[in-house]
Design brief:
Length: about 1200
C-alpha cells in the first residue's frame, strides 16, 4: 500500500511538471534522415551544428551521449557545434547511430542521428591470391587466356573500380583492364626466353586521385619439340691428303637439338656428294671416315667433295623424327707428288717458211702437264740438240699445266739450213720425273733475194743526129736465189718511144731520131724481175748533144709600145726577146733596128737582162706624129756558122695628155619636192663641159656620178637625176647630194668637176600616231587618293607640225582614271579603288585602261589600235579575315581517340600575299590541352580523351589573323558539344546500407532509399533497380525507377533475423554496352516482445557459501531457444525486488521460484527479516526470480 501511495505521488508530481514546462525539440533535418560525413574529414573539423528550439526560450545545453559516440564526437554545449575528435574510416565502419541531447536545465531531450560515413578514395587496390605464378607451354596460341589476376578496392564508386595494366607493357602478353585476364599476344619461344617476370599495376578509377598497387606475375615457359636441330662449329670444311688410309677419321660432325628443355639425340646421314661412297658417316656418333681409295688426280675427286649431311632428331625409340637440318661439308684433297710431267705428244712435226720472222710462233700445240698440284706440279722445260739456238720456248718454268709456245729466235735461211731436229725435256726436282718429246722442223724455200744491178746509174752521151738502131749499152743485174727464182729479165717501166731493151741480155738500142731542142736528156727506169716476181729498179741517163739547126724565134709576132708626148727623159717603149733552141754558141743572139717610119734618130736598142729594149732618147710631140703612130722593124741573128736570123715589126704609139677639167653650169643646185612624189620621177638635169678636144679626154668622155643617197639615181651620160623609191619625210626630210663629172683621164691624169644638189622634202599627213613602250603595266595601291600618278603613255606621230601633234583620250570612259589629253599622264579620278571589289565591271575597269590617240592633221589620223594600260592593284591590308563556317556547333562523341580530327575551320581573307595569309589560333585561357588547332589548315583535333562527365561543352574562341605589317584579326566561337557515351558505371552512395527494422513493421514499409547516380546523360543515365540476391523468400521489393526498398510481407525475426540484399542498378545504354552498379543492403530484423520467456526447468536449486563475494555467479539459468537474444538482454531479479520502484513489472514476464541456501546472514542478498533478526549462520531462502525482456 505504501508503494502504491509513493507511486501515485510520483505520477502526480510528473504530471504537474509537464504542465508547467515545455521540453526543447531538435530542428535539424538529419534527425529524420541521416548525416553524411566523409571519412577524410580532418580531426578537429566541424561536421554539424545542433539546432533546437525551446518554447520558453530558455538557454539550451547540447551534448552527445554514448561511449562510442563520445569517442568520435564532441559537442560545444553552448553552440551545439559538433566536432570530430577521432579519424573516421568508412571501410571499418560505414555508419553509426549517435545519440545527441539538448537540455533546458529542466528536461533532457535525446534523439538519434544515423551518421553515414562518406567514402573517399583512400585505399589502393589489394591483390588476392599472391604470389602469381603460371606455367604455360611455348606453343600457347596467341589470344589464349592463361591467368586471371584478382584485386579489389574497398572504396566505393570509381575509387573502388579497378583496372589492370602491365607496367611496363609487355610485348608478349596483354591484360584485360577490367577482368584481369592475361592473354598471349605474340608467339612464344622457349629457346629465346624461358620465363617472363611481369609487373601488374592495379589502379582504381578515381578521377581526382587514383591509387594503384603493383604485383609480380611470374610466367614460366615450358619447352615443346618445335625446333629443328642445328649444326655446331659451322662451317664444315677440311683438307686431307690423297693417300690417307681407309678408316681415317676426317672429322666429327655435331648437331644439337634447339629444344633445350628436353633435347633429343641426333642421327647423321650423307644425302648427296659421296662419290663412289668414298666416305662413311656413323649414324649415331657423326664420325666421318674414309671408306675408299682417294686419288686427287682422279677427275671425279680433283675438285674435292661437297657432302650434303642431314642431322635428324631421334625419337625415344631411336626412330627418326621430322625435325631435320641439312648442311654442306666441303672436303679438299691435298696433293702428293706422285705424277711425272708429260707432253701431250711424243713427237711434233711442222713445216715453216724460211721467211718466218724472229718471234714467229710455230703452229705446234705443245702442252706439258704435271697432274700434281702446288709445288709438286712445278717443272722446267728446255730444248737440246744441234741448231736449237735458232728457236726458243716459253714458258720454261711451269706449274701444273701449260701450253708451250715455240718461237723463232734467229733469222732462218733455206739456203743455209733446210731442216732442224732436237729434243724437248720437262724435268721435275725428282730425278726420275722427266717428260720427253722430239721436235722436227722443215723450212720452206722462199724467193727472198731481189735482183741487184751492177751499177746504180748507167750514163751515156750521143749527138742528136745518131741514127736509129744503134746499140747504146748493156744493163746487168744478178739474183742470189736458186732455180727459177734466180733468173733475171729486164724491162723499161715507162716504155719510151726512142729506146728499147732486150729482156734477156739487157742491151739498150736507139729506136727513133733524137732532137736536142726537144729533149736534151733522157732518164730511163729499168726494171729487173726474177722468176719469183721480185723486182729491182735501176736508172739509165742518155745525154743528147746539140747541132745548130734552129733559127732565132721571137716570142711575139709583133710588138706594140707607147709613150706620152713631151716626155723629157729617156723612155723605154718596147721589150723584145727571141730564143734559139740550139745550145751555145749556136744560140747566142744579137739585135738591130733595120727600119723606122719617122724620127729614126730618136730610137735606139740595147740589151737589158736578156731583152732587147727599144728606147726614145728625145721628147716627141703628139701633134707632129702622123696619127700618133711610129713603125719599126727589128732583126735577131744567132752565133752559128752559117748564122741564122729572124725579124719582127714594132709599133710605137704617142699618147696625148689631159690638161682641162670638166665644169658644171652651177656649183650648187637647190630644189624642193613633195614626199609623195612617185618613184622614177625626174628631179633635176645637171650639165658639165670639158675644153679638151680629143675624144678620150674631151666632152664625149664625160661621165656623171652621184653620192649621198640611194633614194636618187643619176644618168651617167645625160646628167638626169630621178627618184629610185617612194620618199618618206618622216624618215629623212633633206638630202645633200654630190654630183661628179669625170673625163676620160686615168689615175692622176683624170680630171673631175663637182657640184652639190640640196633637195628638201615637203611634209604631208601620211602617218598615224604610234604607241611607244608598250605594253604598259602600272602598280597602284588600292584606296589611292585623287590625282595619284598612275603612268604616262606615249604615242609618237613622225609627221611635222599639226600633222604630228597627238591628242589622248580614255575610250571607253573609265570612272576610276583621268588622262591629260596633251601629255598622256594618267591619274586616279578619286573614285575608290578596291582591289577586293566583287563587282565584275569595276574589277575590269580598275585593272585595265584603254587609251586612244589621234593627230591634228587634215584629215586627222587615229592610231590603228588603242593601247591598254594593265593596272596591278597593290594590296592594302584593309580586310579582316572572315570565318566561313563559324560560329558553329560541333558534336564530338566522348572517348574519341587522341589525334582524331572532328572539325575544319574555314576562313578567307580577300587580301593577297602576306595580307591574305591567315594563321589560326586558339585564344589563350581556353582548354587548349583538350584540343589542338592546326594553324594552317584549320583542322581541329583532340589532344586528350574527352570525358563528357567532366566537361560536357567547350566554348572555343578561335582567332584568325593575317600576316600583314599591321595584322588584322577576327574572332569567332566554336561550340564543341561532347556527346555522351555509356562509359560510366552506376554508383551507389553509399554502397552498403545497414538497416534495422522491427519485425512488426507493416507491409510496404520503406526499408531504405537507395541513392545511385550515373554520370552519363540521357538514356545512358536512366537507371533501373533490381534485387538480384538475398531475397529468395520475396520479403522485399525495390522500386524499378525510384530505388526505394520496401517490405512485401511481414517479417519474423524468429524465422530469419537478418537479410543481405544485393541491389543492382542498370543503366539504359545501348544494348551490349549497358553498365551495372551494385549495392548491398544489410537488413537486421529487431525483436519485438511477442514471445514469453520459458525456463528449461521448472525449478533450480543451488548452494552457496556465505562468504562468496558480491557478484559471484551462483547459478546458470538457460533460456528457451525460442529467444534469439543472448542472456545479457534479459533482466533477472527476485520477485520481491523489481528493477525499478517507479514502474510496474513489465509484461510479459516469467516467474520461477528458486530455493537458495545461504551460509550466513551477511551474504543474504534479500535483507529479509529472518536474516536480520535470526542471524542464522546457514539458512534457506526461497526466492522467486523473474525474467523479463529488456
Amino acid at each position: 500500500m505504501a508503494v502504491a501511495k509513493l507511486l501515485l505521488a510520483f505520477l502526480f508530481l510528473h504530471s504537474f511538471c509537464e504542465g508547467s514546462n515545455q521540453p526543447p525539440r531538435f530542428l535539424n533535418y538529419f534527425f529524420s534522415t541521416y548525416l553524411l560525413i566523409y571519412e577524410d574529414t580532418p580531426i578537429g573539423s566541424s561536421v554539424a551544428q545542433l539546432k533546437a528550439d525551446d518554447p520558453e526560450g530558455e538557454p539550451l545545453i547540447y551534448g552527445v551521449s554514448g561511449q562510442e559516440a563520445m569517442k568520435y564526437f564532441v559537442v560545444t554545449k553552448e553552440t551545439g557545434v559538433v566536432w570530430l575528435r577521432q579519424q573516421l574510416d568508412r571501410e571499418t565502419k560505414s555508419e553509426m547511430q549517435v545519440e545527441f541531447y539538448v537540455s533546458d536545465n529542466q528536461e533532457v531531450v535525446k534523439d538519434t542521428v544515423n551518421i553515414q560515413i562518406g567514402d573517399v578514395n583512400d585505399n589502393a587496390p589489394n591483390f588476392h591470391g599472391q604470389p602469381y605464378t603460371v606455367n604455360i607451354p611455348e606453343d600457347t596460341p596467341v589470344g589464349r587466356s592463361i591467368f586471371m589476376v584478382n584485386a579489389s578496392d574497398p572504396d566505393q564508386g570509381t575509387g573502388g573500380s579497378v583496372l589492370f595494366s602491365f607496367q611496363p607493357p609487355s610485348a608478349f602478353f596483354a591484360i584485360d583492364g577490367a577482368r584481369g585476364t592475361v592473354t598471349v599476344t605474340r608467339a612464344l619461344d622457349y629457346e629465346t626466353t624461358t620465363a617472363y617476370q611481369l609487373t601488374v599495376n592495379a589502379t582504381d578509377q578515381d578521377k581526382m586521385r587514383p591509387l594503384s598497387r603493383l604485383a609480380g606475375l611470374a610466367i614460366t615457359i615450358t619447352d615443346i619439340q618445335d625446333m629443328d636441330p642445328i649444326f655446331t662449329n659451322l662451317p664444315y670444311s677440311t683438307n686431307i691428303e690423297e693417300d690417307v688410309p681407309l678408316g681415317y677419321e676426317v672429322r666429327k660432325i655435331t648437331a644439337i637439338d634447339q629444344d633445350l628443355g628436353r633435347p633429343r639425340g641426333i642421327g647423321y646421314t650423307i644425302i648427296t656428294g659421296n662419290t663412289n661412297s668414298v666416305f662413311a658417316l656413323d649414324y649415331i656418333s657423326g664420325s666421318l671416315t674414309v671408306n675408299g681409295q682417294l686419288d686427287r688426280e682422279n677427275p671425279l675427286y680433283s675438285a674435292g667433295f661437297s657432302l650434303t649431311v642431314r642431322a635428324t632428331e631421334l625419337n625415344d625409340d631411336r626412330s627418326p623424327s621430322r625435325a631435320t637440318v641439312v648442311t654442306t661439308f666441303t672436303i679438299l684433297l691435298i696433293d702428293k707428288n706422285d705424277n711425272a710431267p708429260k707432253f701431250n705428244s711424243s713427237e711434233y712435226r711442222v713445216r715453216i717458211t724460211e721467211l718466218a720472222q724472229v718471234g714467229f710462233a710455230l703452229p705446234l700445240f705443245i702442252q706439258a702437264e704435271d697432274k700434281d698440284e702446288g709445288v709438286n706440279s712445278m717443272f722446267q722445260v728446255f730444248l737440246t740438240g744441234n741448231n736449237s739456238e735458232y728457236f726458243t720456248i716459253s714458258p720454261t718454268a711451269v706449274q701444273g699445266r701449260a701450253d708451250i709456245r715455240m718461237r723463232v729466235a734467229m733469222p732462218l735461211d733455206f739456203e743455209q739450213i733446210r731442216s732442224f731436229s732436237f729434243s724437248l725435256y720437262a724435268n721435275e726436282s725428282i730425278s726420275d720425273h722427266v717428260g720427253f718429246a722430239r721436235v722436227f722442223i722443215e723450212l720452206i724455200n722462199e724467193n727472198d733475194n731481189r735482183p741487184i744491178f751492177s751499177r746504180p746509174l748507167y750514163n751515156i752521151s750521143l749527138p742528136e743526129n745518131t741514127p736509129p738502131g744503134t746499140s747504146l749499152l748493156r744493163i746487168l743485174a744478178t739474183d742470189g736465189d736458186a732455180g727459177t727464182f734466180g733468173i733475171v729479165r729486164y724491162y723499161f717501166t715507162d716504155e719510151p718511144d726512142q729506146f728499147s731493151i732486150d729482156e734477156e741480155t739487157g742491151w739498150v738500142v736507139l729506136q727513133a731520131s733524137l732532137d736536142y731542142e726537144l729533149m736534151r736528156r733522157f732518164t730511163l727506169t729499168v726494171l729487173a724481175k726474177d722468176g719469183g716476181g721480185e723486182e729491182t729498179t735501176g736508172r739509165v741517163r742518155v745525154n743528147v748533144l746539140d747541132v745548130n739547126d734552129n733559127a732565132p724565134l721571137f716570142q711575139k709576132e709583133a710588138y706594140v709600145g707607147s709613150l706620152r708626148e713631151n716626155e723629157q727623159t729617156v723612155q723605154s717603149v718596147a721589150r723584145i726577146r727571141a730564143t734559139d733552141e740550139d745550145s751555145p754558141p749556136n744560140n747566142v743572139l744579137t739585135y738591130t733596128i733595120i727600119s723606122v717610119s719617122a724620127f729614126p734618130d730618136y730610137f735606139r736598142i740595147i740589151m737589158v737582162e736578156g731583152y732587147a729594149v727599144i728606147s726614145v732618147i728625145r721628147p716627141l710631140d703628139y701633134e707632129m706624129v702622123p696619127k700618133g703612130m711610129i713603125y719599126l722593124t727589128v732583126m735577131a741573128k744567132d752565133g752559128g756558122n752559117p748564122a741564122l736570123n729572124s725579124t719582127v715589126p714594132v709599133t710605137v704609139e704617142v699618147i696625148d695628155e689631159n690638161d682641162n677639167p670638166p665644169e658644171f653650169s652651177k656649183q650648187s643646185y637647190i630644189i624642193k619636192i613633195p614626199e609623195n612624189i612617185i618613184a622614177g620621177a625626174t628631179v633635176l638635169l645637171v650639165n658639165a663641159t670639158d675644153l679638151d678636144a680629143s675624144r678620150e679626154f674631151g666632152q664625149a668622155s664625160l661621165i656623171y656620178s652621184l653620192e649621198g643617197s640611194s633614194q636618187f639615181r643619176l644618168n651617167s651620160r645625160s646628167g638626169e637625176i630621178t627618184t629610185t623609191a617612194l620618199l618618206d619625210r618622216e624618215l629623212k626630210s633633206e638630202y645633200i647630194l654630190i654630183v661628179r663629172a669625170v673625163d676620160g683621164g686615168v689615175g692622176p691624169q683624170q680630171k673631175t668637176g663637182i657640184a652639190t644638189v640640196n633637195i628638201t622634202i615637203l611634209d604631208i599627213n601620211d602617218n598615224a600616231p604610234m604607241w611607244r613602250d608598250e605594253p604598259y603595266n602600272a602598280n597602284v595601291v588600292e584606296m589611292s587618293p585623287i590625282n595619284t600618278d598612275v603612268i604616262s603613255v606615249l604615242a609618237v606621230d613622225p609627221d611635222n607640225g599639226e600633222n604630228g601633234t597627238v591628242i589622248y583620250s580614255i575610250n571607253p570612259e573609265n570612272p576610276f582614271y583621268t588622262i591629260n589629253s596633251s601629255t598622256g599622264k594618267i591619274r586616279t579620278s578619286g573614285v575608290t579603288l578596291d582591289r577586293e571589289s566583287t563587282n565584275p565591271r569595276d574589277t575590269v575597269l580598275m585593272r585595265t585602261i584603254v587609251v586612244s590617240a589621234v593627230d591634228r592633221g587634215t584629215p586627222p589620223l587615229r592610231a590603228s589600235a588603242s593601247t591598254t594600260v594593265f593596272v596591278n592593284l597593290l594590296d592594302l591590308n584593309d580586310n579582316d579575315p572572315t570565318f566561313l563556317n563559324l560560329p558553329s556547333v560541333a558534336e564530338v562523341p566522348e572517348g574519341l581517340p587522341i589525334g582524331s580530327s572532328f572539325f575544319r575551320i574555314q576562313v578567307e581573307d580577300p587580301d593577297e600575299d602576306k595580307n591574305g595569309l591567315i594563321t589560326l589560333a586558339l585564344q589563350m585561357g581556353m582548354p587548349r590541352l583538350d584540343f589542338y588547332l592546326n594553324i594552317s589548315t584549320g583542322v581541329l583535333t583532340s589532344s586528350a580523351v574527352l570525358d563528357r562527365e567532366q566537361i560536357g561543352q567547350y566554348q572555343l574562341r578561335i582567332i584568325a589573323y593575317d600576316s600583314g605589317r599591321f595584322p588584322r584579326t577576327s574572332t569567332s566561337t566554336l561550340t564543341v558539344i561532347v556527346l555522351d557515351v555509356n562509359d560510366e558505371t552506376p554508383t551507389f552512395n553509399p554502397r552498403v546500407y545497414n538497416v534495422s527494422l522491427k519485425e512488426s513493421v507493416p507491409r510496404d514499409h520503406t526499408v531504405a532509399r537507395l541513392s545511385c547516380f550515373d554520370n552519363d546523360a540521357g538514356l545512358n543515365a536512366e537507371l533501373s533497380y533490381f534485387i538480384t540476391d538475398g531475397n529468395q523468400d520475396g520479403k522485399f521489393s525495390v522500386g524499378f525507377r525510384d530505388g526505394i526498398v520496401r517490405t512485401v510481407v511481414g517479417l519474423d525475426r524468429e524465422t530469419q533475423a537478418a537479410y543481405t540484399l544485393i541491389i543492382e542498378a542498370i543503366d539504359n545504354g545501348p544494348a551490349g554496352s549497358r553498365r551495372t552498379g551494385t549495392a548491398t543492403v544489410f537488413v537486421e530484423v529487431q525483436d519485438v516482445n511477442d514471445n514469453r520467456p520459458i525456463f528449461l526447468q521448472n525449478s533450480y536449486e543451488t548452494s552457496i557459501l556465505e562468504s562468496v563475494p558480491r557478484g559471484t555467479s551462483i547459478l546458470q539459468i538457460v533460456r528457451t531457444p525460442i529467444r534469439a537474444q543472448p542472456l545479457p538482454h534479459l533482466q533477472l531479479g527476485l520477485a520481491g525486488r523489481p528493477p525499478s520502484t517507479s514502474q510496474a513489472l513489465p509484461r510479459p514476464a516469467a516467474r520461477l521460484r528458486v530455493p537458495v541456501l545461504f551460509r550466513g546472514p551477511a551474504h543474504c542478498q534479500e535483507g529479509c527479516k529472518s536474516c536480520q533478526q535470526q542471524r542464522q549462520p546457514q539458512h534457506h531462502h526461497d526466492g522467486e526470480f523473474w525474467v523479463v525482456d529488456v
